[in-house]
Design brief:
It is a single chain. The strands form four sheets. This protein has a seven-stranded mixed sheet. Strand 14 and strand 15 form a beta hairpin. The chain folds into four domains: 51 residues, no CATH class; 189 residues, 3-Layer(aba) Sandwich (Rossmann fold); 125 residues, Beta-Lactamase, CATH 3.30.450; 102 residues, PAS domain (Beta-Lactamase), CATH 3.30.450. The radius of gyration is 39 Å and the shape is elongated. The chain is built from 20 helices and 20 strands. The longest helix has 82 residues. The chain is 45% helix and 23% strand. By secondary structure, it is of the alpha+beta class.
């Protein structure tokens, strides 16, 4: 249980996540809270915002802030052939197996999730182009590159990268697959057409299907264990029966799912494990052309096909006659399953035994319904209301049953609400149950012995979670380091510009033969050129910082006070005086002095004195 002081803060943070999901469609509820809070805190610190409530109000008032926030949360740290040892294994061992399993001319479907700015997707393109050859690659390979960051996807579509992104690649690879454009390198245009970029949310969007190789490197570590389980189930559905899953070095799959088996645990490459007798293999027989439909029949057919509820039609002989899109996806049915006896399909007994119910429908000639049928598939439990409806011929034609419509309506949400309601009722009864807990404690000794092994597994999970957190922090530190390097380059550039300006001003002051003295509003010397040194015998380092009136030179500086004040008065103009003085050699001279105001940004900051010996 959390402390009382932490609860309001957590509630405010969850409310902030809900606000972002409702206003921008980004659902971060499946992301790890600790990592999310660090990224939010970074933005809030930059904006000097203390609480999550204040930051939510700021987002509401400043919609542009969403862009900076998403760029901060979605850390896009990637590169070509990142983790070279793993890529070498994939290129040498996995890709040849994928190529060998395909028949000549058959296509390849590759998926790169969390692709960021596209370097990983283009790395996959290079690997398959090397294995197949350029022309075969262009004709047979499709690479799907997905991410939730639209800005990163745009960068990936342009495929233009700085020099440092490709400088570690072999020269022959750079020459073969990249084109030099100014100071950047662009991936070859003819091969870039085979890489398709698109926005995809791993948590809520349906997966891409029939994938041969799925690369999701250092993406799962940002999600909670529950979200990771759902994503792995989607990956399992997406892959071909002999497909491969390529993860990042910070992700360990074996303790998370029984859907995959390791091909090489060190390089994080896994193979898909079949989960049932029905796989999504392509039909071996040629498809039968569908009969032509009139408009009404086509409309009925389309409405049946796109219905949100899974629905199948069993004909009078007990064979599968129709299955809409939702049913085919849910029960993993192929087009070739149409026409097969129901008893030969897994659907006949999972999620519920249908054959006895079909007999009941034929006997009683009225609908039969089943409520809250529980079904666990791909580690996810859902509940369905199953309705079997007889399909009767119109009155006057005999009224025979032509078939049975079986509809599976997903009621998981309502079942969960019902469960929560029942849970609330049970809480009222806990007072009585607590009286019985003393007896139950005697039985826990054996359970504790059994839990020891589970605790060891939990410890391993926690260590893995810690490793993922460290990897996330490493990604953040790398991102911060890149930002600091950029700032350092900008500061170095500004320093060079300032030094160049100072050198230019020094050259001007040195080149003027007459004496030039610059004073601030307090009449302290800020500049003293070589001409002033030659005239009065006082070096710049001796004069600068001194009060002009306190300088021990042959010039009656007290007589300059009024001209200087007039020059520094707002709107003052330059004025000239001629004073009797003694130069550094002790010679009496007449010195003409021009007092001009020194303006900076429209404000008088001091005065400039131009001194010149007057020859009579």
């Amino acid at each position: 249980m959390g402390t009382a002081s932490a609860a309001p803060e957590d509630s405010a943070f969850e409310a902030l996540l809900d606000f972002i999901r409702e206003n921008r469609g980004f659902d971060f509820t499946g992301y790890k809270r600790q990592s999310l809070k660090r990224r939010f805190a970074k933005r809030m610190q930059m904006l000097r915002i203390e609480s999550h409530e204040d930051y939510q109000r700021y987002l509401d008032d400043h919609p542009d802030e969403f862009v900076d926030l998403f760029n901060t949360i979605l850390i896009n740290v990637t590169g070509f052939f990142r983790d070279a040892a793993a890529w070498e294994f994939v290129q040498a061992e996995i890709v040849p197996k994928i190529v060998e399993a395909k028949s000549p001319g058959e296509g390849f479907r590759i998926w790169s999730t969390g692709c960021a700015s596209g370097e990983e997707a283009y790395t996959l393109a290079i690997v398959f182009a090397e294995a197949l050859g350029i022309e075969a690659f262009k004709n047979r390979v499709k690479i799907y590159a997905t991410d939730v960051d639209e800005e990163a996807l745009t960068e990936g579509r342009h495929s233009s990268y700085p020099l440092e992104s490709v400088e570690h690649l072999p020269d022959e690879i750079v020459k073969k697959y990249f084109e030099r454009v100014d100071q950047r390198y662009a991936f070859r245009g003819d091969l870039r057409r085979c890489v398709i970029f698109g926005r995809h949310d791993l948590v809520k969007d349906p997966p891409i299907s029939r994938i041969d190789l799925l690369a999701s490197r250092n993406t799962l570590m940002y999600f909670t264990p529950e979200a990771q389980a759902r994503i792995l189930a989607s990956f399992h559905f997406a892959l071909q029966p002999d497909g491969y899953l390529f993860l990042g070095k910070s992700e360990v799959l074996l303790t998370r799912s029984n859907l995959f088996t390791p091909a090489d645990i060190k390089r994080r490459v896994f193979r898909r494990v079949p989960t049932g007798p029905i796989e999504r293999a392509a039909p071996t027989a040629a498809p039968v052309a569908a009969p032509a439909l009139n408009d009404d029949e086509a409309l009925r057919h389309v409405s049946f096909e796109v219905s949100p509820a899974a629905q199948v039609i069993i004909d009078a002989t007990g064979r599968l006659a129709w299955a809409n899109q939702q049913a085919r996806t849910l029960f993993r049915l192929d087009r070739r399953d149409v026409g097969r006896p129901l008893q030969d399909l897994e659907l006949s007994y999972r999620p519920v035994e249908l054959r006895s119910r079909l007999d009941q429908v034929h006997t009683e000639r009225h609908p039969v319904g089943l409520r809250n049928v529980e079904w666990t598939s791909d580690s996810e439990t859902r509940f369905y209301d199953v309705t079997l409806t007889p399909l009767l011929l119109p009155a006057g034609t005999g009224g025979d049953i032509r078939g049975v419509s079986v509809t599976f309506t997903d009621v998981t949400r309502y079942k969960l609400l019902q469960t929560e309601l029942e849970s609330s009722k049970r809480e009222v009864e806990t007072a009585y149950e607590e009286l019985q807990s003393t007896v139950e404690e005697l039985e826990t000794t054996n359970e504790e012995l059994q839990s020891t092994n589970e605790e060891l597994e939990t410890t391993n999970e926690e260590l893995q979670s810690t490793n993922e957190e460290l990897e996330t922090m490493n990604e953040e530190l790398q991102s911060t380091n890149e930002e600091l390097e950029t700032i350092n380059d900008e500061l170095s550039l500004r320093t060079d510009e300032v030094n160049e300006v100072n050198s230019f001003l020094e050259a001007i002051l040195t080149s003027i033969e007459g004496g030039v003295v610059v004073v601030d509003r307090d009449l302290r010397v800020t500049a003293w050129n070589h001409g002033a040194d030659q005239l009065w015998g006082l070096r710049p380092d001796e004069a600068q910082g001194q009060h002009l009136m306190n300088l021990d030179i042959g010039l009656p500086t007290a007589q300059l006070r009024i001209p200087l004040r007039q020059a520094m008065t707002d709107g003052g103009a330059a004025n000239e005086v001629v004073l009797a003085a003694t130069n550094r050699r002790g010679k009496s001279i007449s010195c003409k002095i021009l007092c001009s105001p020194l303006h900076l940004n429209g404000v008088t900051q001091g005065a400039i004195l131009l001194m010149e010996e007057v020859t009579t």
